[in-house]
Amino acid sequence: MAPTQNDRENTEPLPPTTSTGTLVRSFLESILAYVQARSQLLKLESKEASAAITLKVFLFLSATTCLTLAYALAIVAAISLVSQATTYPWQYVSLAAAGLHVLVAVILILVAKAPFRRGLFRHTLNEIEKDRQWLNPKHHSKSPDPGQKPK
């Protein structure tokens, strides 16, 4: 007996379907690509943060150097004040120089304590915020009103 049209339809291979394993692999590859992109961004911003922190350390070390110099000048002036006195003794000049060094040290400390001009990891934080907004269910369900101004 010859096969009928109906028999041929049942014996033909089914079209390929996406297996669960393929879906899981695709999902994991997407997650890996996302993590790699974020880690590259973190690496770039870490370099920027390193430069900013190095500047702060330099300013604190400069302030410490100025305070040490001021202390040394103050000691020299105190010893000289005890040993000799004139109308314009060099000791007063040394004390003035010590005061100047203290003033410079205070200014350097205030500059070093000031917040960073550009926030650290700002690109990473912006990307994370964009991801949060994108993942927020309200983001997908509500489209903005064209006449409404953005906040």
Largest beta-sheet details: none
Averaged pLDDT: 77
**Regions with pLDDT < 50 over 5+ consecutive residues?**
none
Helix percentage: over 70%
Strand proportion, as a percent range, falls in under 5%
Estimate the global geometry from the Cα principal axes: rod-shaped
Helix-strand topology string: HHHHH
- What would you call the structural class? mainly alpha
Number of strands: 0
Description:
The protein has 151 residues and is an all-alpha fold. The model has no long low-confidence stretch (mean pLDDT 77). The termini are far apart. It has helices spanning 5-11, 20-83, 90-113, 122-135, 137-141.
Quick synopsis:
This protein is mainly α and 151 residues long. It is built from five helices and no strands.
Pick out its properties:
5 helices, mainly alpha, rod-shaped, 0% strand, 151 residues
What is the element layout, followed by pairings?
Layout: H1 5-11, H2 20-83, H3 90-113, H4 122-135, H5 137-141
Helix pairs in contact: 2-3, 2-4
